[in-house]
Amino acid sequence: MQQALNKPLAGIRVLDLSRILAGPMTGQWLADLGADVIKVERPGKGDESRTYGPPFLRDRDGKPTDTAAFYLACNRGKRSMTIDLGSAEGQDIVRGLAAQSDVLIENFRAGTLARYGLGHEQLRALNPRLVYCSITGFGQDGPYARRPGYDGIFQALGGLMATSGHPEEPMKVGMSIVDVITSLYAVMAIQAALRQRDQATGLGQHVDMALLDCTVATLSHYAMSYLTTGEAPLRRGNGGYGGVPSQAFRCKDRSIFLVAANNAQFGRLCEAIGLPQLPGDPRFDSTSRRIANRAVLVDLLAATLAQMESTDVLARLELADVPASPVNELPEVFADPQVRHRGMLQQVDHPLGGSMYLVANPLRMSCSAVGASRPPPLVGEHTREILKELAGMDDVHIDALMAQGVV
To answer: Which of 47, 102, 179, 213 does the annotation list as catalytic?
Structure first.
């Protein structure tokens, strides 16, 4: 109990009507910070991301369940209840829950929930303090507002693919990075809205998050390079855009990534790998000259590194205080001693799978506990509990609603 009291968002209730990834991950971050997050799902089916497999969670006997790993990635710490949003009774239940909540998260297409009487203005009339967060592909307004979209669409449309890949071929980030980034922006906005409500206005507000907006904002210094010069930065595969070298190199046995961002690091790099003459070469004796002569320098470094074992190179560069790393596959990531030391694997007990690992929340705060001990919930696992606690219903009433398919 003491740990729960130390969590920054203890006492905040979140009604999470979202599904798939960006919305549920927003709710998960808030749960990690101590909010009571109630996940609302469809009766009998749940969040469609539960079926986004294989792979699926295996039970204690090693048999596959119907719970996808995808779902497990973004729903820890929540309570799940099922409600048919298309029914009048279900809509009444949501309104009752919203009236007692601090935050509502939804990622339906713009205008969908308003048709159910669950839009921002409708729920604001019931609870003026509610922070209502809508997460959509294109936002609540504009020429694309009603369009569907998924992560890859926004990587392509928003310019993220233009920054990745090789000169002749743009390439998307492998994972659904736009959804993850949007969830982080959404949590920032929700917490800001809660603070403004509690410290200034006493009122909630509508937070309008668009995956396209978040993609464009994430372009950061790439965008500024274009806006400053009118020229789009070139794609360089596994090479960085700034100082040289900053990229992956292939050693005899595997690839490594190294960065020498200034003259001092470049000098130590060259000394460590047996090329002490390069820092004095007029083509490479400053950051700007190394950038101008990138191709020549990279070829020289690549030829030398290709003859060396990665462990030897990495040991030399560590002694020389030059940033470098192996290019790890996922098994190596989660076996890494620093990752283990920082507690980036969290163990929970799942009702079907038993003891299992999740990726932990990376926040570390000196006076606040962060992280959820509750595993991702089963479909409707807490429906009865929540209806008794927040709607004041008894078992007879709840049984009747279940028989009708309302919950």
So the answer is: 179
